[in-house]
Amino acid sequence: MMNNQRLSCADFTFPLLSHEGSLNLIADMGMDGVDIGLFEGRSHLYPSQEFVNVEKSGTALKTKVADRGLVVADVFLQTAPGFIPSAINHPDETQRKKCRAGFRSALEYAVACECGHVTILPGVFFDDVPEAESLALCHEELAWRVERAQEAGLIFAVEAHIGSIAPMPRAAIALVEAVPGLTLTVDYTHFTSRGFPDRDIEPLLQHASHFHARGACEGRLQTSFEHNTIDYERVFQAMKTCEYAGFIGIEYVWIDWEHCNEVDNVSETILLRDFFRKLIKENRDGK
Fold first, then answer.
1. Measured between alpha carbons, how far is residue 80 from residues 25, 86, 97 in Å?
2. Domain-by-domain residue ranges, the chain?
3. Domain 2-282 sits in which CATH superfamily?
4. How far apart are alpha carbons 266 and 252 in whole angstroms?
5. The three-state (H, E, C) secondary structure of the chain, written as one string
6. Full pLDDT tens readout for the chain, 287 residues
């Protein structure tokens, strides 16, 4: 499996470019795929616009991506600028129904752009709702989404993250154990920045269907390759052990949150790309 490892890059890594410019840059970097961010209010493509005519928009994206020699590696859906209003386990039933409708559209969009993988956020705890109730709603909503994704022939994952219902590695594992068929889009940086060592995060790879990579260290969700403390060579070896078959997505972001606008995304993406390319080549050569 790992002999066919592919690299992708997020289109939202370069928000100051046009979408076409972002795709051109990713293609010029020699990436195999692109991770598409459908983030309402803060990405090139907004769900509210792309979902007006899902088939047309998804097909148009497929063409734009294919014309540049790329494939869509992941469709990452966030239906509101903040992750609390759009939480899938929102206590308001009307809001949950809206989230379900958005997810259905995301699945149709992924099929139209010939992407086999969809990622969302897992939900949050609400101050005025007992934790057990929030978890139960989360499990219910995730199970529903697993079923819809399987019907569409797609792989469905959540990304455990800072501020979510799964802010620690063991909580992320508890989610996939509670919801059969659920997978993870694994991003070490959310845990590394909170002081978790690699060995505590590594078990998540057994449940991974997509992977986000960037530099991070304790206290910094995003940092340069020079200051990164994640042992990505160890990560790569762990991927081999568990026969990880998904993309390695290089996912620097540029937003005014958690100091995520303080590195040179172009240079850092290239440095991490070259690092993984070396590991992939060595693996193919049997070293």
1. 27, 6, 14
2. 2-282
3. Divalent-metal-dependent TIM barrel enzymes (3.20.20.150)
4. 9
5. CHHHCCEEEEHHHCCCCCHHHHHHHHHHCCCCEEEEEEECCCCCECHHHHCCCHHHHHHHHHHHHHCCCCEEEEEEEECCCCCCCCCCCCCCHHHHHHHHHHHHHHHHHHHHCCCCEEEECCCCCCCCCCHHHHHHHHHHHHHHHHHHHHHHCCEEEECCCCCCCCCCHHHHHHHHHHCCCCEEEEECHHHHCCCCCHHHHHHHHHHEEEEEECEEECCEEEECCCCCCCCHHHHHHHHHHCCCCCCEEECCCCCCCCCCCCCCHHHHHHHHHHHHHHHHHHHHCCC
6. 556 799 999 999 999 999 999 999 999 999 999 999 999 998 999 999 999 999 999 999 999 999 999 999 999 999 988 788 889 999 999 999 999 999 999 999 999 999 999 999 999 999 999 999 999 999 999 999 999 999 999 999 999 998 999 999 999 999 999 999 999 999 999 999 999 999 999 999 999 999 999 999 999 999 999 999 999 999 999 999 999 999 999 999 987 777 778 899 999 999 999 999 999 999 988 87
